[in-house]
Amino acid sequence: MKIGIDCRFLNRAIEQKPGGNTGHGVYIYNLVKNLSAIDNQNEYNLYLLNDCDYKLEKSNFNNKRMSKLHNNGYLRSVLTFPVELWRNPVDIFHGLYSIPMLKLKRTVLTMFEFSWLLFPQYYSKRVTIPAGAMIKMAVSRANMVITGSKFMKEEVLNYFKIPEERVEAIPLGVDEVFFEHMNEADIRDMRKRFKIEADYILAVGDLWPKKNVERLIAAFCILRKSKNFDLELVLTGGNLWKSEQLFQKIHSSGFKDKIITTGYVSLRDLKLLYQGAQLFVFPSLYEGFGLPVLEAMASKTPVVVSNVSSIPEVAGDAGVYFDPYNAENIASTMLKVIDNSELREGLIKRGRERAEKFTWLKVSERTLHIYRKIA
């Protein structure tokens, strides 16, 4: 059986580059890595962007670099993929969010969320209109849709009205590197480089509205004003659409010197940030999974998280929950964990144990099962 996988996000995940540790790149990198470890029978075509340095050295995995035109989402769907797949057909095509406009034998579609359809106010119309049309067409044509959580499976079923047997929830894994203990000297060096001068609360995620960072900043300001609270807030992630409004909030907060934005960081720095933090907070309003929660738990950092969407599936009993729409509740929940050392130790222990249950090997085994099932 010949299987083709859309690997356009791989260029975000290799060489531990800043920004490479975001969800889509992490998923496709670990899926391919673990498929190569467990499957010696099927042949794989990995479709890469033309500037991607990734190369998997295994006889049944073919690295196919596409032309520069492949970087364009529309041309990828109507031209570069159709031409490649017409010349070199596959038995199963596995796409991420889109499927080429070509009649294919069997297709698998992975989608972690489709918030641009549910919350268009968070996105530019240049994104929502073409992306919406593309995802609707892809879902209607896919033999199987993979989501990262049961919550997102229900969202797909409710929105797209497809049969339940065509959707499978496969929880994501956490990279083993987050279980590694980092040197204290390296943590001190990281803090110096990012100008972190005190103990800190960490939030990881791109800076845009659905990540709810604005309310997190409001909650942080409540804590700074309410008592002798000297922690800083570190925000790690890229600056996306409407992030300029967030920076205005930071500058007008009265605590701009206590709120640090790092932008995208390398995988190594991300590990150091997790392990150096007093607390990890995840205030997101809508998630298809929530990888940073797992990464923080694997790093032995206590977590406080939103009580909405897929996040409770990830954190389980290893997190303390808050209402993400209530800044006062976010603040009081953070303070509850910071002030209670017994609670913190319990969260660290349960978090580590829970993180160990989520592996990329399981993800790849279940994905391979789907390939065999629909073949």
Domain tally: 2
Radius of gyration equals 21 Å
Question: What multimeric state do the chains show?
Answer: single chain
Terminus-to-terminus distance: 8 Å
Question: What series of H and E elements makes up the topology?
Answer: EHEEHEEHHEHEHEHEHEHEHEHEHHH
CATH homologous superfamily of the largest domain?
Glycogen Phosphorylase B
Unreliable stretches, pLDDT < 50, 5 or more residues? 15-19
Q: Give me the number of helical elements.
A: 14
Report strand order across the widest sheet. Answer: 3-2-1-4-5-6-7
- Number of DSSP strands? 13
Main β-sheet, in a few words?
Answer: 7 strands, parallel
Q: What form results from the Cα inertia axes?
A: globular
Query: Could you say which structural class the secondary elements and strand pairing correspond to?
Result: alpha/beta
Q: What share of residues are in beta strands?
A: 15-25%
**What is the level 1 CATH name of the largest domain?**
Alpha Beta
CATH third-level topology of the largest domain? Rossmann fold
- Estimate percent helicity: 40-55%
